[in-house]
Known about the structure:
Elements: E1 3-5, E2 15-17, E3 21-22, E4 29-38, H1 41-48, E5 57-58, E6 62-70, E7 82-85, H2 95-98, H3 107-111, E8 117-119, E9 122-126, E10 136-140, E11 144-146, H4 153-159, H5 162-174, E12 181-185, H6 189-200, E13 205-209, H7 213-221, E14 226-228, H8 233-241, E15 246-251, H9 256-264, E16 266-274, H10 288-294, E17 297-300, H11 308-320, E18 330-335, H12 339-348, E19 353-357
Parallel strand pairs: 5-9, 12-13, 12-15, 13-14, 15-16, 16-17, 18-19
Antiparallel strand pairs: 1-2, 3-8, 4-6, 4-10, 4-19, 6-7, 7-11, 8-9
Helix pairs in contact: 5-6, 5-11
Amino acid sequence: xxxxxxxxxxxxxxxxxxxxxxxxxxxxxxxxxxxxxxxxxxxxxxxxxxxxxxxxxxxxxxxxxxxxxxxxxxxxxxxxxxxxxxxxxxxxxxxxxxxxxxxxxxxxxxxxxxxxxxxxxxxxxxxxxxxxxxxxxxxxxxxxxxxxxxxxxxxxxxxxxxxxxxxxxxxxxxxxxxxxxxxxxxxxxxxxxxxxxxxxxxxxxxxxxxxxxxxxxxxxxxxxxxxxxxxxxxxxxxxxxxxxxxxxxxxxxxxxxxxxxxxxxxxxxxxxxxxxxxxxxxxxxxxxxxxxxxxxxxxxxxxxxxxxxxxxxxxxxxxxxxxxxxxxxxxxxxxxxxxxxxxxxxxxxxxxxxxxxx
Length: 358
C-alpha cells in the first residue's frame, strides 16, 4: 500500500512509497482504511525533531476512515464502522484516568515506541502511535472512535486533533468568562479553533495575532474582533485594554519567545494558556518576583485539557447546530501524492488546514 515516509529526522520532504505494510494486527487491534487526514503543525515538528519521534516514520495523526477488520476481544466496533483516529486514547485505569484527566493518560505514548508499519527495508513507526499519511493503519481499538453517518471524513479528521485542541483550550482549560478580553497568538487551524471557543464562551474582545495576512483575515471571519500582526500587538493591547493586558492570552505557536510575549500581554491576575507544543530544550524564563507579584495563572493545555471522547461529542453537536464552522477551516485539498505541497502550504502559512484525501 502507499504511505508517505520520512526517512530521517530533519528532512523536509516525504517520500511516497507503495511497498509499505501496516503491521501489528491482532487481539485488541483494528485495521482502518484512511479516507481523509489533516496536516497538523505537530507533524512538521516531529519531522524537524522539535517533538521526539523515532524514525523512519509515517507522519499524520489527524485522520478518519472506515474499519476494515477488527481483532479478537474488540467490543463495540465492527468492519464498516466510520471512525475518527484518536492519537491519545485513554486506558481508563491509570491514576490520571481515575482522576478524570484522561488527556494525561500515557498509554498512547507507549504505542509511539512500537513500529506499526514495515517495508522491505525494515520497520517504520507511525507518528504518535498512529501514522495517517497512508492508505491503512493498524491501531489499538481505543484509537478508533465511531462517528455518526452525517459527519464527513474530512470534518471528522479535524476533530481528531486541531479542533479538539483549540476549542478545548478555551472551553475546558481556560473556561473563560463572558465579557472578557482575549488575545490568540498563532492563528492556524488550532488558533482559529481557540478563537471559535472564545466566541462561544462570550468573550467581548478577541484579538487575533499572526504574521500572515491571510490568516488574520480568516480569524475575523471566525469570530475575532480585531486581527493584528505581532508588531501591532502592543497597540492592540492599549486600544482594547487601556494598556492593562488581556484577561486571557492563548499561545498557539509552541515557542518560548511567543510564550514570553503572551505572558507580558496578560494582565495581572489574568490567564496565559499554553497550547502550542514546543521543544524540550526551549525554555521559558520568568523571574521569581514577577511570578509572585503579577499572580498570573499559567495553564498548559494538553489536547484540549478535557475528556477526549466527550470533547468529540461536544464538537459534533456544536457543528450540527451551526455554532462552529469546521468546513471553513479546510482551505486546501490535495491527494496523498501531493503531500509535499501540503507541507509547503503549512510552512508558508497559506493554509489553515490542508485535507489530504486518500
